[in-house]
UniProtKB/TrEMBL annotation:
Species this chain originates from: Billgrantia endophytica
Cellular component GO terms held in the UniProt record: outer membrane-bounded periplasmic space
Pfam families for the chain: DctP
Keyword Signal attached: yes
Swiss-Prot/TrEMBL GO biological process terms: transmembrane transport
Keywords: Signal, Transport
Domain of life per record: Bacteria
UniProt-recorded name of the protein: C4-dicarboxylate ABC transporter substrate-binding protein
Similarity remark: Belongs to the bacterial solute-binding protein 7 family.
Keyword Ribonucleoprotein annotated: no
Family matches, as InterPro entries: DctP_fam, TRAP_DctP, TRAP_DctP_sf
Amino acid sequence: MKFWILKKPIIEQATLSEDIFMKMVRYATLAAALGFLGMSGLTAAQEVTLRASGSFQPDHSSSLAMERFRDSVAERTNGEVRIDLFPSNQLGGASQQVDQVRRGSIFMSWSGPSFWTGVVPEIEALSLPFVLPDPESAFNLVDGPLGGILSEGFEERNVIALGWGDLGARHVTNSRRALNSVEDFNGLRIRMQPNEVHLSTFRALGANPAPLDIAELFSALQQGVMDGQENPYSITLTNRFQEIQGHLSDTAHFYDYVVYLVNKEAFEGLDPEYQEAIRTSMEEAIEWQRSYNQEANEAALEELIEAGMTFTPISDELRDEMREMTSGVIDDVRARIGSDLVDMVLEEAGVEQ
């Protein structure tokens, strides 16, 4: 007996027990409903295979968390659900992953949320410059009411947010000079994520920022198209930017996250026990990743200095000056997404309004 989906036989079997037959019917129905939604053909003798694409290197904590997630899902489903991982932009850069997971050509992505601001503008609230003082405040936001609002925004766009991992504070590196004053930002061509808050912040500091996918960043720095970039220390290290950047600072201008997303239609088409296995496994992986990533960022700073980068700490006076210069960016965010979300962030950060 054969069932044909998209001209491919997804089920083939000779004689079957009633229990196995019902499993096959369930899988065939699922495959018919999902089509190309990031899933392979399904049979009673094969596992459900889901593709997940990430913009981080395999040795970054977010990718290591995905390995733990993959293994946990397999264990919880007795091998019936298999997650195939494609880190390092193998299936396309972070910007492409946005379209891929929305269309369902991949089941899942893990990337920085800034790439989603064009789809879910409310994400801009997470990027207010020089506001979030520590990881605890950052996590309280995405684990609380603001995170719920963002989740609703994703679901309206056919995507489910399984959770938020930790990237950490973002810091500037460049190949031109140490950053000892705001004047040292003048004219620096800094690669940014495609997030208007990020771009406006560095324009206010006098730099010349430009959006670029991280998949293209190494060559842009190497060829001098860009003078610098800004990322958490572990991202700078795992992408080997220390090989082509000489100056490192601790600007901590934004606190950033990893967002783990799945295609809504594909996820809801899975059996409830599979959905539960995926959610529980992701929660555990994120809990591990948040703790591990903070340690990884601390260790990465030491490795970057050992690799020969010149580290210039930002003084309190300079940071206050940078905060003042970029305060207008927060007003612009209010105008775009409303005051309620901005006020949530400022209240959590303890900033007087």
